[in-house]
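Two proteins were folded this term; both appear here.
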Amino acid sequence: MPKITLPANLEQHDPTDRALYHLWITDRLRYNDLDPVGHVNNNAVGQFVENGRVRLFDEIGRDPAVPGQAMRLGWVVRRLEVDFIKEIRFPGDVEVGTRVVRIGTSSMIVRSGIFVEGDCACTATTVSVCFDMIGRTSMPIPEDIRAKVIRTSEGTD
């Protein structure tokens, strides 16, 4: 079976550039997202990034739940790095762009950008590990999911 790879140098692209992202969600800001100085807090930003990743996992496919059986494949966060570029203020919406920029044997690097009125307010880089839910350990990313990651990352799916 041929090795499936992403286009070269995706990790080098500017994460504040909207053009990097192919998968988008919109989240509404909530009053309880605010910190004491009136900014949307870091916990809310983590939720926006998570919502984008969950959408990505929905797009690339998951191990379907079978009644009476546990799911075998899941995704866990190994690392999450967030850069806060400008403040996000209530009320309003944020747009979250998500894209896989690198795929390995059992993990992938997911880049996220959070945009407010067209401007990038935060970026995040997440290492997501393919996880065997029964054996409770990392596992190789199945080839069908790898192929779907590539198609989703190229914007062709």
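Next, the second protein.
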Amino acid sequence: MTRWLGIDHGSRRIGVAVSDAGGSIASPLEGVPAEPASRAFERIAALAAEYGAAGAVVGWPLNTDDTEGPQGALARRFAIDLAEATGLDVRLWDERFTSAAADAKLAGLYTRRQKKARQDAVAAAMILGDFLAVGGPDAAPTAAEAVPPRKSGR
């Protein structure tokens, strides 16, 4: 497996992580300002080139009832735009609760300000780690293929 980037999309910052060449370890890299989007895409493309990443997996925050809410729709749109802007193979991955898990992982280790600066990249590493653990790109839809899940019984 080649390297992949993990992306935790946020309205202010985008957390970025990278895998090792073997596709088994995900490490936090940095937080990228989300605006302007064109600069964020440029930075992500530069990181992909620097690390030789074949693609990126974007966290897709689905609701607990398996539906896509407003944040999920924004993340899906971001993933589509990222693929178009960079030419990367961009996949979506269910990332429910990763920001809360990243916050818990950093609790007590840093000041509030230091934790906030690292939280997005740690969440991106958690998304990437989960994605890699189940087979990477073979286990996730491309951004263009992703269909928002619907509640069963509707």
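The radius of gyration is 15 Å. The chain has four helices and five strands. These notes refer to the second protein only.
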